[in-house]
Amino acid sequence: MKPLCHLKDLEATGALGLTVDLGEGPVGIFVVRQGGTVRAYHNRCPHRGTPLEWQDHQFLDDEGALIVCATHGALFRIEDGLCVAGPCKRQSLTPVPVRVEGQAVLLP
Ligand code: FES
């Protein structure tokens, strides 16, 4: 188990961008929280493969309800990464499995 962050790291913006090694060299991911749901995804839009955030750690829309791609505005559900609007509708972000233990978000 590798610690990724603490839940309090997600308080300010609801998400945290990180670079981790998942076994094939450094890759950009982000951890996102909505209530009791904590998920992580590769920071790569299925439309053009660009990073999603519009500023550091800013991955969510104004309401904090959906993940938004800064390039063309695709919207993704936090719970499963499914694109619900935009040019890659019905495609999904690539999940990264994470576990929450206490206040820590861990990479198994
Ligand atoms: S690159 Fe994300 S919507 Fe186009």
TrEMBL record:
Keywords: 2Fe-2S, Iron, Iron-sulfur, Metal-binding. PROSITE patterns: RIESKE. Residues 2-107 form the Rieske domain. GO terms for molecular function: 2 iron, 2 sulfur cluster binding; metal ion binding. InterPro entries: Rieske_2Fe-2S (IPR017941), Rieske_2Fe-2S_sf (IPR036922). It comes from Thioalkalivibrio sulfidiphilus (strain HL-EbGR7). CDD domains: Rieske (cd03467). This is Rieske (2Fe-2S) domain protein.
